[in-house]
Amino acid sequence: MTPVTPTSNGAVRELISFQIGAQEFCVDIMSVREIRGWTPATPLPRTPVFVRGVINLRGAVLPIVDLGSRLGLQMTEPTERHVIIVTRIEDQLVGLLVDAVCDIITVRDDQIQSTPDVASDLVQQFVKGILSMEGRMISLIYLERILPDREAEAA
Amino acid sequence: MDPLEAIKVTFFQECEEQLSELESGLLAMEQGETDSETVNAVFRAVHSIKGGAGAFSLEPLVRFAHVFETTLDDVRGGKLAPDNNVVKVMLRAADVLADHVRAARDGGVVEEARSQALAAALEALNGEAPLAPVVSAELDDMPGLEFTPLTVSEDDGFGDDFGFTPLAAGIISLEPEGPALRTWTVLLRPKNALYAKANETGLLLRELKRLGDLQVSIDRSELPGLAEMDAEHAYLTWTILLTTDRSQSDIQDVFEFVDGDCDLSITAEDFAVSPAEIGVLGGDEPFDVMALIQQAQAEVQAAPAPVIMAQAFAGPASPPAPAPAPLAAAPAVSVSSPPPSPVAAAAAVAPDAAHGAAAQQATIRVDLDRVDRLIDLVGELVINQAMLAQRVTESGVPRSSNIAMGLDDLEHLTREIQDSVMAIRAQPVKSVFQRMPRLVREVAAMTGKQVRLVTEGEGTEVDKTVIERLTDPITHMIRNAIDHGLERPEVRVAAGKGPEGTVRLSAVHRSGRIVIEVSDDGKGIDRPRVRQIAIDKGLIEVDSNLSDEDVDNLIFMPGFSTASSVSDISGRGVGMDVVKRSIQGLGGRIAITSRPGQGSTFTLSLPLTLAVLDGMVVSVCDHTLVAPLTAIIESLQPKAQDVRAIGPDAYVIAIRDTYTPLIDVGAMLGYRTTPLDPTKGVALLVEGEGGARAALMVDAIQGQRQVVIKSLEANYRQVEGIAAATILGDGRVALILDVDNVVAARRREKARSDAKLATVG
Hints:
- The structure holds two protein chains of two kinds.
- Chain A is mainly β.
- Chain A has three helices and ten strands.
- Chain A has a five-stranded mixed sheet with strand order 8-1-2-10-9.
- The radius of gyration of chain A is 16 Å and the shape is globular.
- Chain A starts with 11 loop residues before the first strand and ends with a helix.
- Chain B is 43% helix and 20% strand.
- The longest helix of chain B is centred in the first third of the chain and has 28 residues, at 3-30.
- In chain B, helix 16 (368-394) runs antiparallel to helix 17 (402-425).
- Chain B folds into five domains: 3-139, Four Helix Bundle (Hemerythrin (Met), subunit A), CATH 1.20.120; 182-280, 2-Layer Sandwich (Alpha-Beta Plaits); 368-410; 429-607, 2-Layer Sandwich (Heat Shock Protein 90), CATH 3.30.565.10; 612-760, SH3 type barrels, CATH 2.30.30.
- By secondary structure, chain B is an alpha+beta fold.
- In chain B, a hairpin with a 5-residue loop joins strand 21 (722-727) and strand 22.
- Chains A and B meet through strand 4, strand 5 and strand 7 of A and helix 16, strand 21 and strand 22 of B.
């Protein structure tokens, strides 16, 4: 990987990339609080399938979102080798269930390409942009849209 | 927040404390405790408020407090007997004073008419007061003198500030040819403590200046050379010749806040201490501390020390902090002997100071956030400890091993820490109870009834969160007790009772809960009328067979109001059902007992805290849930013959011949699709909002446990049917059932299906 330096084309940012199935995704490292192993979650009634339930994070109740399910991929069958990425979304902490964490990557903003106009609404909704890294394609997740929309759910 | 604002905040906090002191003192006086200690406590409260308010230039507050203080001073001086009438006026004045304080704090305005009316009432008390020997010697010499209180606008620079000084005016009129000017010699010798408490002789002198003409001289004979000088030591003695028309106690009052921190003698000219041994400096000149210091500086040529001195004596640049006078008062008060003629105040000073010292309690103010953080952490510690203990047990370590025993000790310690931390948040219910006398006075005045409020168990402690939410229900119940419970005086007399009704408010701890009772000795619940109203409003069937208790409980039904005319006091569209709901919202219960002709008693039982909850831990399809114990009436194992199907998919259960809807919790929360066989589970009979009962089917009961409540909304959002979450001993999250919601959910589904039918049809 070539060292990245800030240019007039954009600030440098660090991203954490992770794997769900065969695809690779990433989120901004600044929104990641910690990474921990999977522990069984307590299911919540009347919630969308992608909300796996809540776990105890040192005394706080942390909801777990199955990111694969949320993105319209397959439901994850969690094992001990699965990983929860604890992220801060606005003022809430949310755990994202993913298969594995891959890498920390450093990119400039101008390296992030806009999302190609593909058919899937889910892709349009949750992928902020994509970047190409040594032949891998990594999708940048739109974190703020991960949690179920309050208004939409209430209606 | 800038420092002045911070001081102001402290001032208002102290005001609240002074106001409650004032109220409890006045109530004690009403009960006949008119000893000087009580009267002084009351006087001190008003005086401190006035003093602090003056520092912040809160004019309306100062004005009113001053009138109040003047009246209290008369009581203190024995010029006004604190009979019932007087105390009643003063209680109302205390209410207005409280309004003034709040208005000053929140930037509001007090209804001027009300304030003036009471100020006038207080003045009237002063006016009526027989002028007992104020300046006895002189009075005795002038028998048969007529006292006509004049509104003399003597230019003493004081009357202007406060509008009027009725007392002073009264005395002035004694002297036909002019104000009774006397010359007093005030010998002031500050101790180190006076300066250490940020008091300031310059300010005291300025206060004295407001009373009359001053001649100040200073004795600096004790002032050592700069080399030996201790910057924090007090070396100076002032001799002040004060020519004023004010009484000795007025002069004494100037020194109220430095009581005990200085040697003070106030003598009339005739007894004046000869200033012979005192080095007179600056004779007629107005006092000038800076000049003095400069002189001292000149005498000893040195550098750094005078700077410190100068700072210590620096002019009245910073406003004096509202000094916690009563607390700081040291027992030693030196009033010079022989005491001069008017000694009313002096006599009261010594026990006063002793009282202040006795009442001293070491307290600190702590930000509530910090306490809450501590409570959160301790909650986590408790969970962690339980997890650790469980892991150790699982690992097969014998109970007798050192590790297991150490863990037991740890458990004890953790519990103790938890209790102690919860105790920090615990507060006496006094703060709520104290608001009630005022309410009672107001409601009594509005309804024309005579009411006496008796409170018991004010010291009973309960968590702050509970306290905050107690005021409204208690207020409502007391209003109800006076408005609906007590009879008018003439009715009471006709019924053979005293004209004055009694409302009793009590609090007591009982088996880990706080029990609050509001009872009255009124007419009791008019059961035939309650029944009739319930029938008229369609709440019950005409022929329903209800026990007395059932009828009494009808008043908790939504939409019930017994007042024949909706009165201003309790008929605001909220009834006892609202009270009941808010009590249940706190995890409490409310009950009523009533005896016709003898009165009613409302009993509230509440948990001591909202941070933990007594729960029934149950299993539903391999999930662990917690049901709040307060909602559960009983648990039972249904027999096959008791469960009846009603309609296509609904079931009821017969409990002692009453059919109660059966709700399968597992199915309702979506944990299972095939309903549980009722005979294989346990039914929890619960009572939801508005008294609706239902039987909740669960698989099994695991036990009863106190759990720490954790919010789901903090990181997620509200979930229907779930009130909150908690963390169990194994570290897993368990959900707490929202019983109200579960019971009501059945009705919502019914409404939905009704709506569906309507659109189809």
